[in-house]
Write the structure tokens for this entry.
Amino acid sequence: MQFRFQNMEIWQRGAAISAPLFHLADNLEQRRLRRFAEQLRAAVLSITNNIAEGSGSTSDAEFANFLNIARRSVFEVANMLLLFLQQGICAQAEVASHLAELDQQSRMLLAFRRTLKS
């Protein structure tokens, strides 16, 4: 069985970016920054969870709301990465590559959300 969201590029890209961010969370945990690791994992999961949950909606308006929540989670992850960079927890190159992908994810979520409202 395959769920609707599995065929969506926005979900696939969200799932793809989650792998390196989960790895980062594992590294944070090893450095005894457990709270940061937990928060990062939760925010990353929220992106794909809301896309998946929204895809099961019975209306486009409801799906659009879930996409908005997913997009807000993208911003939460970006904020955390920027703060990790400021605190010297992450390197510039690592953060820059993640931010570029998160920016693309945000744009895709917004564009798809707009198609639902049309």
Notes: The radius of gyration is 15 Å. The CA atoms of residues 7 and 52 lie 11 Å apart. The chain has a mean pLDDT of 96. The chain is about 80% helix and 0% strand.
